[in-house]
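Supplementary Methods S3. Complex input for the copper (II) ion-bound model.
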Amino acid sequence: MASNHLPSLTRRQALAGSVALAAAASLPMTAQAQDGANPLAIPPLDEGRAEGGIQVFDLRIAKGTTEFFSGTKTDTYGINADYLGPVLSLQQGKTVRLNVTNDLDQKATLHWHGFELPAWCDGGPHQMIDPGQTWSPEFPVRQRAGSYWYHGHRMGHTGEHVWMGMAGMIRVRDAESDVLGLPSTYGVDDFSIALQDRWFNRRGQLDYAPSMHDEMMGMTGNTPLANGTMNAFAQVPTGLVRLRLLNGSNASFYNLGFDDGAAFWQIATDGGLLTAPVRRNALLIAPGERTEIIIDMSDGQTRTLGADLTPIEGGMGMGGGMMGMGRGGARGFAFVQLRPTGQPGTGSLPDRLSDLAPANAPDGAPVRRFVLEMNGMGPAAMARRLLGGSPFTINGASMDMAVVNEIVPVNTTEIWEVENTSPMAHPFHVHNTQFRILTRAGQPPEAGEAGLKDTVVVWGGQTVRLAVRFEDNTDADRPYMYHCHILEHEDAGMMGQFTVV
Ligand code: C2O
Ligand code: CU
Ligand code: CU
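Predicted complex, serialized as structure tokens:
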């Protein structure tokens, strides 16, 4: 089915002389999808099975091989699949049990990103699953209807595990959203799509061997994947289509849009529906973030969802050329072409989506500060790194499994002030909560970020203030994480731990 060719350049060659890449980058976004387009992979929608009122899922992490290029078997990781995993379908208020078996020959974890849950269920670096073992967290689903995800989170190996495919998406339903009439037939007018990019070596393998440069800038690739499909297309009704999008890349910031500039409506943020749809032509999504959009395909035109990569560094020092030349800069990525079938759609888009109180923190709410730093990027930093130190810190410290950095009182709204003193943007993620953005650089957030969030981009030199609250789940012994969701930064120590008591 796939008819793609192996890239003829090695990474090094492409980095050195970017003529060929520059030429490829100047092709129109649809060029990639014209010939040899492949049907978008639609992961199975896993409803689990009922066991005494509990929704039970069996998930198995294992090695697989995936034919990204026809005739080439690429080694990958997957969950009940060769690459990525099923889309888990959860219901708010129901208790789930997730039996996660690790069939790799190395330790792994599986984290439920975006969920409020007991610390022992979090699936962070402390919930390690030994090879051959099964871990069975069980918790009630508290989240609102929305798009969440799960992924490997082993200390120091998150980048590799996700790069190789250890991730999947989750959808939560709730009573409020069920009656809205939004497109919601999975794989027909409602798609969950993990957006990623990868770099394949000459043998078509996903070598995860970040250079020092990759550790600084994060691992990015030249090949866009939608649910693991290259040059993907999907048949859609000639009507409203809902796309639930995850930025499941290691480090790329995608500025999403359609090749014909068509306007669309953003209806959700990380933690579920916005109060009202936001009409827009472009939408930035950073690693770890999710969004949901509605695109009106009733004109019957084929169009392609794509992205330009947004440079994540500001001016200071790194030199725009580093990103612009090799693998970053404004580059057209075609993720998925939507082909209307002529069948009318059945979904609708109401003016009002949900009730969400304005973001607010009570007067006198305690302020907790987090300073994201990169301590120099010159030779000194390199030397420091060679000695085992990390240039990436939060409040001056790198992640240490043995250190709980913050102890946070339960059921208390705090203001988390996150300042980024580095020249690069960092998507700051907090476990076990859905927070609200109070201000970004002193201003209230734009409508598209005014909903519930668990990951927020903090641009170089910027400060964001968040209203953060942890409810009910307390555990003095087991910490949750906060970290940069550029996975190479996380693995390099830009992460800290907190307990809720
Ligand atoms: Cu999506 Cu701590 O991670
Ligand atoms: Cu998380
Ligand atoms: Cu970062």
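Residues 147 and 171 are 5 Å apart (CA to CA). The chain has nine helices and 33 strands.
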